[in-house]
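Hi there,

I know you've been waiting on this one. I reran it after we fixed the sequence typo, so this is the corrected version. Both the input and the resulting structure follow.
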Amino acid sequence: MSERFAKKWEERSPERPLTERIKEAVRPPGPLKPRLDMAIRRIELQIQKLDQASERFSQRDKSIFARIVDAYTKHDMARANVFANELAEIRKMEKMIMHARLALEQIVLRLRTVSELGDVVSTLGPAISVLRAVQTGMAGIFPEAERELGQISNLLSGIIVEAGQTTGLTINFETANEDAQKILAEAAAVAEQKIKEKFPELPAGVSSIPLGERSMTETS
């Protein structure tokens, strides 16, 4: 690691006037490592919020599933199917949340390994791509998470720009996107399996079509 980069990586800025600190909160220009640590903490906070949301959906899942079983035992299949469609929507949301959580967890693990110059460019490129993909997925579910993830990806982009200016290294976007797709695909596969293990299957004869898919089949 070059002496210039090492200094940029580790050093901490002295106390500055409040106005400057406010500007830094929007786009921190300081040393790279403290800013990377801050990004990790902010991602971990989003993971905690996703865990809380997942728990709320799980409770709702149990409640609706119980209603399906009750309707099924009373041979009220019309009512059971209505609840089944609602349950399908909830499980769709739960899978999206779990997918996002697993992807963010992988990003945190990778960011924690960044300790050398080469790691900055090779690790942050895919991390930003994953964050932006998760951000898009959260748009319709958690607008707050969408905004926060956008700010975190901007923070990491700033770190990459500064690292590039210091060293002359640039991102290989093709490789970064390939790595990001692998992370997202692995997270999706694990999320699918966890959903199957976590939630019981519907009783035989009860069909569930998520509302979005149902509307497409009705119009086709």
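Quick highlight: Confidence is low (pLDDT under 50) at residues 21-29, 209-220.

Best,
R. S.
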